[in-house]
From TrEMBL:
Protein name: Glycosyltransferase
One of the record's GO molecular function terms: UDP-glycosyltransferase activity
Domain of life: Eukaryota
Assigned protein family: Belongs to the UDP-glycosyltransferase family.
Presence of the UniProt keyword Transferase in the record: yes
Keyword entries, A-Z: Glycosyltransferase, Transferase
Amino acid sequence: GSETTTPHVAVLVSPGMGHIIPLLEFTKRLAVDHGCHVSFLNITFEASAAQIQLLHSANLPPSLHVIDLPPADVTSGLVTEDTPILTRLCLIVQENLKCLKSVLLSLDNLPKALVIDMFCTQAFDVCEELSIPVYSFFTASPTLLSFSLYLPTLDTEVIDCQFVDLPEPVQVPGCSPVRTEDLPDPVRNRKIDEYKWYLFHVSRLLLASGIFLNAWEDLEPATVRAIRENPFYHQVINTPPVYTVGPIIKDTETVSESESGSQCLRWLDKQPRNSVVFVALGSGGTLTAQQITEVAWGLELSKQRFIWVIRAPSDGSPSGTFFNAGGEANSNEPASFLPEGFLERTKDMGLVVPSWAPQMAVLRHEATGAFWSHCGWNSTLESVANGVPMIAWPLYAEQRMNATVLEEDIGVAVKPVVEAGKEVVTRDEIERVVRMMIEGEERKAMRCRAEELKESVAKALSSPGGSSFESLSRVVKEWKAQV
Ligand code: UDP
């Protein structure tokens, strides 16, 4: 094959907007910037309205084809309301991937490579049979990657207790120690299926021909260097090449279609520069009724401007809308669960948006001064790439780990203090951090750092020459050269 051919590549994604958004963006870059023809294989189970709109948008490049996998039957008692989020996700994926071989064989020509996200590793077995190299796209941070590569070793070294009960932080080779309270949800209880699934998938990272990391050379540089240079990774466990290709985030957002989306942007147009706190908790984040009350009072008492993407309270899991993100805007009546009179009293200062906002466009807007975030990795990248400092309020998955890295290593975030023995962050604390992030002295250093990172993002992505651009380009060249 010559370098001028258009290689066919397939991309396989697991459910959830936090996976679909970056993998779709990655696919667009392969198609638009790197001359690939891409089949985007999508699992349709419990697809939300926002997801369907995203994947069936008219703006996708012509060389990108979204292919819905035939729906599998996951209803027969496999998952229930109480199944932890990752177990649920992994079971859905497992059932849906039973048709992967026939789907790959039905494509016009067999792909030169398959890129999968972290929870689709059953694909390794199928692709081995078909001799298709598989690359992993890691949708989370360098810190989680190093931890995950180390996890199988940790699992054999610690035999008699839970990791959360270890007396010392976990010393991941070459990296900052991970405090036990920051350990990701799926590894907090080693006795349940969620842990077994996580361990299963991350053990198989080593089967990949390469790992794409959604970060760039200057974000967590020490961790990226450790993964490349520390002998544990390349001599002991044989980590495949790691390519920093990020940040892979949305570049544009079609907001005209959604009423509340364009309302957000029109409202922002009327606010002073750097004056608004944007409160949004990812695709899955939900709060308890009591916590919603405290946030409302905290925002009101702070007397600062805000946009609050709000969802109905959930007293169960803090990831209540993960599988149905942006899907229930109409059934969500904020007035019914906000303190009485809140909407009226704050109508000149704030905007309450049910369920879903055009986050990237809001973060890019110059009126936005701080992002109150659950620290999902995509939200983190979007904030940093736009130079917006964060209030870090982790809720689920690996977000506690991200929040600590953001505050202590990267220096662009502050964590609200939770009083000992309390389950909620109080209104006084919320008032304090919101004020500090908009008008306090402390915000200056964080904003400077965020601005610095914004510039380093532009550099990494520039074409030609940017480190992230060139690293992806190198891999595509290898695909093109394959016969
Ligand atoms: N998002 C959005 N509007 C919202 C909430 C979320 O556009 O109101 C997008 C956000 O921009 C990000 C993704 O949904 O790209 C959430 O991914 P993240 O990794 O931050 O969190 P997760 O949803 O996986 O917990």
